[in-house]
Amino acid sequence: MSLYDYGLSTLAQYELTADRSARTRGALLCYTSQGLLILREFHGSEKKLKKQQELLLHLKECGMNTDYFLQNTQESLVSKDKDQMAFTLQHWYEGRECDTKSRDDIIKSVRTLARLHILMKMEPVEEYRERSLRDEYLRHNQELRKIRKFIRKKGASSVFEKDYLASVEWFLQRAQYAVELLDETEYDSLREKVWREGQVCHGEYNQHNVLMLKGEDETAAVTNFGHWNFDIQMADLYRFMRKILEKYNWNLNLAQEMLREYHRIRPISKAEWQNLRVRFTYPEKYWKLANYYYSHKKVWISEKNVEKLQNLIRQRENWKDFAQKCFEVYPADF
């Protein structure tokens, strides 16, 4: 019996039973009298969870489909089983994840994000404010140099290490250029503006967290808000676009179509446009792969990560020109 099968006992705290259940990624789907629900183990902060629920209920009231939480009979969002394992119960949807091979799904996801961003505002809370992009980039650049030094000192023995040493100078130059570009923009005033307005980011808006609902042409559900934070909302748009564009070899036409659809619903300001350009200039995926290598066992490096690194190196010419071509001129009328 799995952990989540044991967690089923917590349904009694909601005065519910499941007619049937099915495992899904890291959770258990429960078919109940209140419809489809999802049961998950909970490890986070209950304080932040309450703020998340506040956000989700606001979105629900505005007509957005989200995975808001159920309160148990003790009016708590978290329930514990007999072994004191904590679980949450959320509303869920019959649907499928956004298909990255479908342009319709991609564009629908972008439209959904734009609508979401218009509504996602809350009273700012300092502890949930995302760190400065400048600080993040400077730290990442330092880490890239540290990893370079580490591999040089021990000697590159694996394919990953050899490919890293052969490519790191080029990617470091791009990383440094992104910091310089950031300093030329209105980043600090934009960051303060969105903070005053209480703009909220989903924090992990990707194809896995957008469900296309069955039988509904224009409707999607957005899930997994656990990484929400106060930040420039372009961070969400960037993350979603980057994951898609990596799969399309940085196709400029697709990128412009995504930006056009977002801008049509939720206009992108000139300062936000500059911010997008900076984000697409920084080699974030390269840093992520290097950081993963350095923080995990270095004796064995997965073939998948070797392939990811080699793919990034192959795509670098297309990626290098992408940010400039896509964001150099701010559109008066997209």
Describe the protein.
- The protein has 334 residues and is an alpha+beta fold.
- Helix content is 52%, strand content 13%.
- The chain is built from eleven helices and eleven strands.
- The strands form three sheets. It has a five-stranded antiparallel sheet with strand order 1-2-3-6-5. Strands 4-10-9-7 form a four-stranded mixed sheet. It has a two-stranded antiparallel ribbon with strand order 8-11.
- The longest helix is centred in the middle third of the chain and has 25 residues.
- The relative contact order is 0.12.
- The model has no long low-confidence stretch (mean pLDDT 93).
Topology:
Elements: H1 3-7, E1 20-24, E2 27-32, E3 35-41, H2 46-61, E4 65-66, E5 79-80, E6 86-91, E7 95-97, H3 103-119, H4 133-154, H5 159-183, H6 187-197, E8 200-201, E9 210-213, E10 220-222, E11 229-230, H7 234-247, H8 252-265, H9 270-281, H10 284-295, H11 303-327
Parallel strand pairs: 4-10
Antiparallel strand pairs: 1-2, 2-3, 3-6, 5-6, 7-9, 8-11, 9-10
